[in-house]
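Friendly challenge for the regulars: who can give me the structure tokens for this chain first? No prize, just bragging rights.
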Amino acid sequence: LLLPPPPCFSWVKMDTSADEKVGQTTPEDDTNKILVADIQERVGLLVKALTQRELRHAVRAMRKINPLKQRLTPTALQTVIKANLSEPEKLLGFFGEMEEGSDGESKDSQYVEAQLSPTISMFLQLLVAVYFQREGNLEQAKIVIVDLVSSADDIDRREASPVLAKAYFVFMRVFELLGMAKDAILTLNKALRTQTLHQNSISQVVIINCLLRIYVLGNLIDQADLLVSKAQFPENAPTEEMARYMYYLGYVKAIQLDYTDAHHNLLQATRKAPSSAIGFQQHAHKLLVIVQMLLGEIPERSLFRKPSLQRSLIPYYHLTKAVRSGEVTSYSAVVEKYERKFIEDRTYNLVVRLRQSVIKAGVRTICLSYSRISLQDLAIKLGLESAEDAEYVVAKAVRDGVIDATINHAEGSVMSNNVLDVYSTTAPQEAFHRRILFCLNLHKDAVKAMRYPPDTNRMKFKEEELVVDKVVEDLSDYEDEDEDGADGI
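First reply, four minutes later:
Bragging rights claimed.
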């Protein structure tokens, strides 16, 4: 007869289940181990770049930081810091009180060499600042990144330039989130002078873009224009940084009424920007559409049908329709409806300037429809207050080359001249010249971006030297044989 176990032995089962759990790892521990391995991979790339003096390994390591940003944890950062630095107290002090079990050295500690330690320490301190920024602890992030930037001038190694560039960007971003962007201008200007003297092009382009961003967001257009005129932007800048620079430069030129240069810069920004940077493409195309209309051109309809731009460009599509129709009332209605959106996009000042473009488009349409029309009727069709305003608008349109017409002041009318054949003018040649210039610039950029295997020319020269040495040896052998033959004779 089987009897159930007595209640007093139930504690044995509980202890057995507890013993089974000993040695098992939780999902959080596995996640930390994976994160530590990923960070160690980046550290290994930096060590490889410093030892082999290959900049591309450091660039590759910094490109892999963004996937780590959302996964960083204090435990993983402390583990990596103690595993790579022989003196980790400074970086560990930024975390305040350490977690339990974090004291002491890591079992897998493999300290980097003393000459490589400053760069690796700077990289790990950058990760600490990025972690605090992600957590919203901006004051602590400011303390970490200010300490990092203040000691960045002591590191003068070309392979550390990608880490420095990222540090300056995080420095600017933290101050911007704190509402203290203008306080970072002095430090960034000093860093720009230092990196220019060191000929550190990667850090140089990032600092220039950071300063331009601060000036643009603060409406300091004159300072931005002064920076562009004084600081020389490196030609070998990365493509994404070149796209940012072109965008800021296009915005500055548009505010300064230089629409031709602004259109060129914004067009280059949209072409150089990566296809995955959808947000940047949207902002750049918003500004490009307005600048194109300020030049008197109408954007193509296919632009507003792109899936990545269709939703964000809805206000600008209605604005384009109003400008194309030349109706001032439609334009005013669109501006009033989407005024808040234009202010958020920082394009409202440029949108207000489009009123003259709307009037010019209306004048062009009317002059193409009527060979002769009175100024009073023209004012009514354009929605202007008086015939004098219409006369001023027509005179300005004639001066700008929008229409080819003559104003009869005595009769108070406008007479359109006969339309000339466009092929009898220089317009086709100018268009053809622009296309050829674009192709030449594209070829020049492609040649500059070409990369060659390392030591290719060196190996070629070694082979040539071996051939020359062999020829010299053969000639000397022949001379010796000739001398021996002459002595024998």
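Residues 175 and 183 are 8 Å apart (CA to CA). The two ends are 126 Å apart (CA to CA). Your move, everyone else.
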